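Folded chain entry —
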Amino acid sequence: MKRTVLFCAAIILAAIALATSSTAGAKDAATAEFEKFRDVLEEDNPAELFEMKGEELWKTKRGPKQVSLEQCDLGLGPGVVRGAYVAMPRYFADVGRVMDAERRIVHCMVSLQGFKPEEIARQPFSNASQTPEQTALVTYVAGQSRNMKFAIPMNQPGMRETYEIGKAVAAYRAGPYDFSCSSCHGDDGKRIRMQELANISSPEGAAKSVQGWPGYRMTGGVMLTLQWRMNDCFRQQRFPAPNYLSDTITALITYLSANAEGSLYKGPGIKR
């Protein structure tokens, strides 16, 4: 009797293993098909339109002071855009803090052009009816680092501390579901439905998490930045929404970007 029970148990376990393997295979196949679909769409990516709009905004005299952003220093010198995106976040001595790309661009809109930060913060991210100017500007700046490798200057003042804060924030569990960023993105092989979840603590996973941002989101038809992606993760965790351009979000972006060190940035992408 005991031998029969053990035999039956072995058969059941084998069946479960086979089913799990088949399901994983189906999910891998689905992921591959989606990647093919995305590659086709990338050939005519609407993000290019936002790049063009961002370039126009960058070079046009605007704001109360009626100046362009062509003297904005993104870390490589005033007006230098090429390669700036993959070298941020970074420390900026003129403000004494670490800034990511969107934060720095908004800083230039305020300091050089005279825009009010509270006015910019009224609509920080895109919706179905409007794309904020800073989103187009970030897309333009990001496009100027296409096919370059992430090289975050971690030896600068404050960078290591900011990285460690970002790492701690990613691991911090709270909220009604006791979630953290790492609950979904702290291990290999996790999924939500058919969506693979990148392990942000690994170089490969971190590269996937920053790749393609800013990105054109097909489901909403809107252009969105990495600042939005981080804020939306807080929403999904049921955390209170961070203030726009907060230190917390900059720290998270620093953690991701530094972990992606050396990976090739393919430019503004397209998202599901």
Remarks:
- The radius of gyration is 22 Å.
- The first strand starts at residue 90 and ends at 92.
- The chain has one domain: 49-271.
